[in-house]
Specification:
Number of strands of chain B: 15
Number of helices of chain B: 35
CATH architecture of the largest domain in chain B: Up-down Bundle
Number of domains of chain B: 4
CATH class of chain A: Mainly Beta
Radius of gyration of chain A: 16 Å
Number of strands of chain A: 8
Shape of chain A: globular
CATH topology of chain A: Jelly Rolls
Radius of gyration of chain B: 40 Å
Largest interface: A-B, 20 and 22 residues
CATH class of the largest domain in chain B: Mainly Alpha
Largest sheet of chain B: 6 strands, mixed
CATH superfamily of chain A: Jelly Rolls
Shape of chain B: extended
CATH architecture of chain A: Sandwich
Order of helices and strands of chain A: HHEEEEEEHEEHH
Helix content of chain B: 55-70%
Oligomer: heterodimer
Structural class of chain A: alpha+beta
CATH superfamily of the largest domain in chain B: ABC transporter type 1, transmembrane domain
Structural class of chain B: alpha/beta
Chain lengths: 150, 904
């Protein structure tokens, strides 16, 4: 996979949509491409986290360890990002992410992440939008869970 | 030690000194005869008018060149035909002259060599005495004296003494003899003239020493200052970290400057005085002829002295000068030597030195036959009482913990118990033997001691662990042939002549039995066991993985590692490892390796093919030219430069990416920008040679899998493979040793164990590749039972000066392993695990207590809570035992121990 192809790929990811091409090239050059085999753990709940990932290809399960055992709460697909919570608010990983298939990711270190967010407001907005979407989804799930219990 | 250098000289070299003197005296007649011969030739052979009187005067003349009258009587034109008799005589005289020249030269050669030998032997004896006294210094003294002070004393300060010792007796006697003979001659010529010639001696004898004393004092001062400077330098070297951490270079430099200034002032004063003395001496020496001319002339005019007599006296006075100068010179050297000796010796007699028998006494290290008991031990340092009324009884096999705060002196207490410090009063007994007179070889065998910070020797890790097994030579060294054996014997007997150690340092010193081993393999096992007790085995294993093995000396191990390589190769085909490693293959391009690595396809040995500097290597460039890759490298380099400049040009100059990702350093960026503009204007062809090289160097660092620049495509890879083949085929003889090529079936000496097993490159961008492969390598090693081989290689690791290449925790663990390995009857630890993390502390505590179950453990704890489970806990405060009992009982009392734990 060459750098130029990476840049093309990243341009299609909403998060990077508004970043100018030259910056994107630098990002592609500096961010590490990381491939996971099927069943590999991308991150583990409770571990320290210092990087976020953007899925370029493949799918991954988000698994939460609860009192009643492991629960798969979501499945991430191409262009989704993960791992941002741990680096945004310095908490241990909140969930385990496991590669469902062979998984291609772009790994963004904590430093790089903050630099990007600082440099490109469009990226911050995109991340806020995604986070809000997750809060909304969680609220819905909570409502459902409560009504089921009642 | 002898109080003065003369006592030292006479005690150890009386016979040799007398021998030199006798030999010197013996050489004198030959010398005189040789001086006499020219005169004989002139008088008896060449001259016709030989008179009795001339001959007698000439003989009295102490062999100086023939008297003036003789020379005048010699006339070359006085004869033209020599009769045979005179010719024969001339031949005999000339032959005698030549013979005497040889004899004199021989004497001189022999005496000089003998003096040198004597001086060197005495120096060797002195240095040995000094060093052996360092061994006897009480430990606290090492806190007051630094190595920077001791080293110059033992090495260069005593050096001039060697030269002096050979001359100590012979020179004053010999030169004195010459002086007296000349004086007698003068006195025989004329009493008053004689008196005149020595008239200034009393003055010189009084004044010169007076001045000399001042020079000596300055000399002492200088020696002290220089010693301080070397101490400072040693200190700066040791605390370079502190100096940088506090930004103290400026102060250090100022401090150093002031010391150099002081030395300069002293030296300058010395020069002034020294050369003034010389001036004075010369002046006085010239003053005497003044008297001769004045007084002698007066007598000649008066007619009471013949002119010939005056001339003879003047000639004799010339003879007086050299010995007198030599004597004065010797006097200065002697004074210098005396000071040096006194000053050095004074530093080597601190109070509380151990007896020689205790330090080097050679006895069989029998085990102690009972409990360790102390009665009223008292210990002080610099007058301060640190331990008082210390009474314990520790039965064999008991595990004792000492706890106490920082002022409790528990560290001193355990050092006393381990016979490392000597009490001021009171008694320490091991069984019924008294510690004070017990040779260290016994305590060193039966007691293992580990302090809070250990310094290791600059040797291999193995040598450091088995250090305690080398107390005495066990078997003579492998003698080799007859010649080698004789040489060894000669060396040892030479050492014996100067009372040096009679032991052969190259003998086999390792006491296998102490470690419970019968041979080297078992010793390695014992070492591994000791290492695992100290929680160090895994560290050494890791060092071994990164270490190198020499297949010449361990062919079997190399073969087994190749087995590991093939096992790993087959395991890598399993699903979970697929694609994590790209193996080396002579016929395939390795996309995870850089272009340079692919070209070399081997491990560089030495600096010729250093991977960072490949583009500078002429042979590498010639290979590129041969396969026609020069232009490609140039254009790829050009493209890389373009990309880099494009990517990095806008970044702020201090951006971390420059260091991390760029092929081009920040400093070079503007230069590349200029180059790129030039290429845009004139094309690549117009570049100059060094500019081309700048571009051509860039591709060497590229790895396709990592940099993904898409510049090394398949056809390019093919051509690089061609270059790889050309590189290996045409490698000149001189460079053959500079690279060790990767060969699937051969062990690669220049690579680490790990790389040899892996035989490939970890793939970039594969999650957890490193961890997974690390585990796989361990697996493979485990399944082939190669772990002990790896550990053995790890034991070859050179620990560096003071063990600096190991972490402080590893150094401590090594010290613990060393104490465990020698299987002592008793182990004494003084906060020995304080440098380690919590879990290692717990592990080691448990391991040692298990290992030493049935043997005595005395442990000064840095955390009192660790004393739990010990048979008895001694609680110390201000140098006294304030509580003793089991941990639980003491905790129930809620007294000192409970407080200490509360404060933990």
């Amino acid at each position: 996979m060459s750098l130029q192809q990476d840049v093309e790929l990243m341009r299609n990811i909403p998060l990077f949509a508004k970043i100018e091409p030259s910056k994107l090239k630098l990002l592609a050059f500096t961010a590490e491409r990381l491939t996971f085999g099927q069943g590999d753990l991308v991150c583990k709940q409770g571990d320290e986290g210092d990087s976020a990932y953007i899925i370029i290809d493949g799918e991954a399960d988000v698994i939460v360890d609860t009192a009643n055992g492991e629960v798969t709460v979501a499945t991430l697909k191409k262009n989704d990002f993960l791992g941002e919570t741990a680096i945004l608010c310095d908490v241990p990983r909140t969930a385990t992410v496991k590669a469902r298939s062979d998984l291609e990711t772009l790994m963004i270190s904590k430093d790089l992440f903050f630099q990007l967010v600082g440099q490109f407001p469009s990226m911050s907005i995109e991340i806020m939008r995604e986070l809000a979407r997750r809060v909304e989804r969680t609220t819905v799930q909570l409502r459902e869970a409560v009504s089921q219990q009642a | 030690m002898e109080r003065s250098i003369y006592k030292f000289i006479f005690r150890f070299s009386k016979r040799e000194q007398v021998f030199i003197l006798l030999f010197t005296v013996l050489s004198l007649p030959f010398y005189y005869v040789s001086l006499d011969i020219p005169k004989l030739i002139v008088n008896n052979v060449l001259s016709d008018q030989v008179t009795e009187a001339d001959a007698s005067v000439a003989n009295l003349d102490l062999g100086m060149v023939a008297a003036a009258e003789d020379i005048r009587s010699f006339s070359l034109f006085g004869y033209d035909i020599l009769d045979m008799e005179r010719l024969t005589l001339l031949g005999i005289y000339c032959g005698m002259f030549l013979g005497l020249v040889l004899i004199n030269g021989g004497f001189k050669y022999f005496i000089n060599v003998y003096k040198g030998l004597l001086g060197e032997r005495m120096l060797r004896r002195l240095r040995y005495q000094l060093f052996s006294r360092i061994m006897r210094f009480p430990l606290p003294h090492f806190r007051r004296v630094s190595s920077g002070e001791l080293i110059p004393m033992v090495t260069q300060e005593v050096e001039p003494l060697g030269g002096f010792i050979g001359d100590a007796l012979a020179l004053p006697f010999y030169q004195g003899g010459l002086l007296i003979t000349a004086l007698i001659f003068i006195f025989m010529q004329d009493f008053w003239m004689g008196l005149a010639s020595i008239s200034l001696y009393p003055m010189q004898g009084w004044l010169i020493p007076k001045l000399q004393r001042k020079v000596n004092l300055l000399g002492k001062e200088r020696v002290k200052e220089v010693r301080k400077v070397s101490e400072r330098i040693a200190e700066t070297v040791q605390s370079a970290e502190e100096m940088h951490a506090n930004g103290m270079a400026r102060w250090e430099l100022a401090e150093f400057t002031s010391r150099m200034g002081r030395i300069f002032e002293i030296r300058y004063a010395i020069y002034n005085k020294k050369f003034f003395i010389k001036f004075l001496n010369n002046f006085l020496a010239q003053l005497t002829p003044f008297f001769f001319f004045a007084i002698g002339g007066y007598f000649v005019i008066q007619g009471s002295l013949s002119l010939g007599g005056l001339v003879a006296v003047l000639a004799a006075y010339k003879d007086l000068q050299p010995p007198w100068k030599e004597l004065l010179n010797h006097y200065q050297i002697r004074e210098d030597a005396k000071i040096k000796y006194d000053q050095v010796v004074a530093q080597f007699a601190p109070a509380g030195m151990r007896e020689e028998e205790v330090v080097v006494g050679e006895v069989a290290p029998e085990p102690f036959n009972g409990a360790l008991t102390t009665s009223n031990l008292r210990y002080d340092e610099d007058g301060e009482v640190l331990i008082d009324g210390f009474n314990v009884e520790i039965a064999p096999g008991q595990h004792i913990a000492l706890v106490g705060g920082p002022t409790s002196s528990k560290d001193r207490a355990v050092m006393l118990l381990a016979h490392l410090l000597d009490p001021a009063s009171g008694k320490l007994r091991y069984g019924d033997a008294e510690a004070q007179t017990m040779p260290e070889v016994v305590t060193g065998t039966q007691i293992g001691f580990v302090g809070p910070a250990t310094s290791l020797f600059s040797a291999s890790l193995m040598d450091n662990v088995i250090y305690g097994l080398r107390q005495a030579p066990r078997a003579p060294r492998d003698a080799g042939d007859d010649k080698a054996r004789k040489e060894t014997e000669r060396q040892l007997s030479e050492a014996a002549k100067t009372a040096n150690s009679a032991d052969d340092a190259f003998a086999d010193w390792i006491d296998l039995e102490r470690a419970g081993a019968a041979n080297r393999e078992e010793l390695i096992e014992a070492v591994r066991h000791a290492l695992s007790v100290a929680d160090m085995e895994d560290d050494v294993y890791q060092l071994g993985l990164r270490g190198r093995l020499d297949p010449e000396t361990r062919p079997e191990a190399a073969k087994r590692l190749l087995e590991a390589r093939s096992l790993l190769e087959s395991r890598l085909k399993e699903d979970s490892y697929r694609g994590l490693v790209e193996p080396f293959d002579r016929d395939a391009y390795n996309t995870n390796a850089t272009v340079g690595e692919n070209l070399l396809f081997g491990t560089p040995v030495g600096e010729d093919f250093d991977l960072d500097r490949l583009p500078e290597n002429e042979y590498v460039m010639s290979v590129l030219a041969k396969v026609g890759l020069v232009d490609d490298f140039l254009s790829i380099g050009h493209e890389v430069a373009q990309t880099m400049v494009e990517l990095f040009a806008d970044l702020p100059p201090d951006h971390e990416y420059f260091g991390q990702f760029s092929f081009i350093s920040l400093d070079d960026l503007p230069e590349f920008q200029a180059l790129l503009r030039k290429v845009e204007r004139d094309g690549l062809e117009e570049l100059e040679e060094n500019e081309r090289l700048m571009f051509m160097a860039l591709p060497f660092k590229m790895a396709p899998a990592r940099h993904r620049l898409g510049l090394i495509d398949n056809s390019m890879q093919e051509r690089l493979l061609e270059a790889r083949r050309a590189f290996a085929e045409d490698l000149p003889e001189a460079l053959k040793g500079s690279v060790e090529f990767f060969d699937h079936d051969l062990y690669n000496t220049a690579s680490s164990l790990q790389d040899n097993i892996l035989f490939g490159k970890l793939a970039y961008g594969r999650a957890q590749a490193q961890t997974k492969i690390g585990e796989l390598i361990s697996d493979v090693i485990e399944s082939l039972e190669l772990r002990s081989t790896v550990v053995e290689v790890g034991l070859d690791f050179e620990v560096g000066i003071g063990g600096a290449r190991l972490s402080s925790a590893q150094r401590q663990k090594t010290a613990i392993a060393r104490a465990v390995l020698k299987r002592p009857q008793m182990i004494v630890l003084s906060e020995a695990t304080a440098a380690l993390d919590g879990s290692a502390q717990t592990t080691i505590l448990k391991n040692i207590r298990e290992e030493f179950s049935g043997r005595t453990v005395i442990w000064a704890m840095h955390r009192p809570s660790q004393a739990k489970d010990f048979d008895e806990v001694l609680v110390m405060a201000d140098g006294k035992i304030v509580e003793k009992g089991t941990f639980d009982d003491l905790m129930e009392n809620k007294a000192v121990l409970a407080d200490l734990i509360g404060a933990e």
